[in-house]
Amino acid sequence: MAGEGEKDSSSDETDSAYTEKRIAAKRELLERCRAALERKLGEKGKHSDSDDGDKGAWGEVSGAAFPGRTAEEIAPIGLIYAGVRWGRDFRFPDIPPDEEGNPITSCTSGTESYRTYLSWLSDYLQQIEAAESGEEQVGLCRYVESMKAEDAMLAIGMDGAIYDWETEGTWMCIEEHGEDVESFLSRLDPESYREEDPLDLEFERERFLQVQREVEQWKAGDQGGRHGDIGYRLVLAKALAPIREKERRVELLDAFYRAWSSYAAK
């Protein structure tokens, strides 16, 4: 949730460079999504630079990478690939204690605390799976309920990692500096955006207000946890609801985190 560092708001040159960096990195991240999907086919070069080529590429990649799935079952992955994002829901922020009674605020994949955490999370998600979806995740919750669990873990991990990166600067402006939406928008320079990806003030306003709601919700229930799943727990619970075997649930939660790591910006 942390941003990339404070910028000098008095420097137009710094702001422009920062915005250009965001746009370039966003494109790079989407290309990584495209490449990752195409690697599932064992080949590359199936897309062109045109929109029609992109649609054709997604159809070919999705059909071969996810055999036997209906269009509805893999729709969220295609939507994420196309740039759609779902927000976070911080209503379920609990974190477990370790063997010494200290809260597991963070953990690293492969460690004992990570395994303890996933085991606890598997049980915790069963307790909340009947809850109603928050406004920002209604669509995603509906989608994952009709997806294969492993595909759902990929979709949620992709969405979480990319959305987290795309909004970390906005989160920092709100959470650390208390910036309001008008101040934020006034710093955006249309000339620093490229013609094919122009500044959309309405989109930026809505995104800022969405992140602002998330920050307020997070602050209200924060227990010190920095786990990526906290903002996606109900979606994960809905996706895992049909799976009752504990070991399998833990395996799938690990798959969620591996997907997150794979798509996180570096």
What is the 3D shape? globular
Counting DSSP E segments of at least 2 residues, the number of strands comes to: 0
Number of domains: 1
User: How far is the N terminus from the C terminus?
Assistant: 14 Å
The radius of gyration over CA amounts to 19 Å
| Overall pLDDT metric | 81
Which spans of ≥5 residues are poorly predicted at pLDDT below 50?
Answer: 1-20, 40-55
Structural category: mainly alpha
What assembly state would you assign to the polypeptide chains in this entry? single chain
Instruction: Provide the succession of SSEs.
Output: HHHHHHHHHH
Measured as a percent range, the helix fraction is 55-70%
What percent of residues are in strands? under 5%
Number of helices, counting only DSSP H or I runs of 4 residues or more: 10
Fold and architecture overview:
The chain is mostly helical and 266 residues long. The protein has one domain (72-263). Helix content is 60%, strand content 0%. Helix 3 packs parallel to helix 6 (149-175), helix 6 packs across helix 8 (201-221) and helix 6 (149-175) runs antiparallel to helix 9 (233-240).
